[in-house]
Design brief:
Structural class: alpha+beta
Strand order of the largest sheet: 8-7-3-4-6-11
Helix content: 25-40%
Number of helices: 8
Length: 304
Amino acid sequence: MNRWLRVFVRAGAPLALLLAAALPTHAAPYDPPALSVVDAGLFQVTLHVQAGTSGAPSGFLVQWMDVDDFDRLGGWPADSDPALVFCAYIGVPTLNLWGATDFRLAPRADAMVQPGDVFDETGIVTNAIDVLQPGHQYVFRARTVGDASSGASSYSLMADAMTLGSAECTQGFWKNHEDLWPPPCTPMLLGTVDYTKSQLLAILNEPARGNGLISLAHQLIAAKLNFCNGSNSAPIAATIAAADALIGGLVCPPIGSGYLEPSATSSFTEQVDEFNNGKLGGVIDCPTPVHTNATWGKLKRLYR
């Protein structure tokens, strides 16, 4: 069994995808996609992917590495190297809806994706759901996923981007540093419902799985903790108020069973995420350094 098939099996990918990965094909490979950088935040990079003339009917794959690892290894390593991180975009997204509504692209169609921000995304297979590190330069490349009709494409030209350098606080930071939560922040209102610290942590650890209420709550919790930590709320205050009004009395899972369509929350989620990633100004440094050296043991595989 080849390595990609083993990854898909462990990730629980659909049978059709497993078969497509296992079947040899002698047809001409798909055209490679074009890849470019849109912007960078503290813990994420936004990429623009455009399919070639043959499209990407089974999706596309993006790989990335810290540039220090890239230089140390003398270029792109074998797929088995732990320094190499990937995300295969093969289905329907429900988090970032400002790009494609399906990662399986028609000829010349495009999508925007965010390495470093995939925990709440759907339609993906990945070997790492951790955020990127602030103040680090990364290299990226992409290829069209092969299937039973045509082989995988060659890789795109390489793109590179540097994340913002100051370590402000995103949901991932607060989820993993509960001992640093400012005491006045809890209990916290999301909509009109009060949540304790333990309930907020449970929400932060709950994958969205296509529930817009959860992905929005993740960003709201981080933003409100940032406010308690001394960040300036002015750049995002109106958005926060509108998001709370939208949530109203819904109780967020796993505490309750509230649900909102991602289409109703995605604009709010994206704006608050931009604030938490330092793109709108106002967010101050976290109370402790965020940077840690990632190890292969920390990397997680995910299919949603």
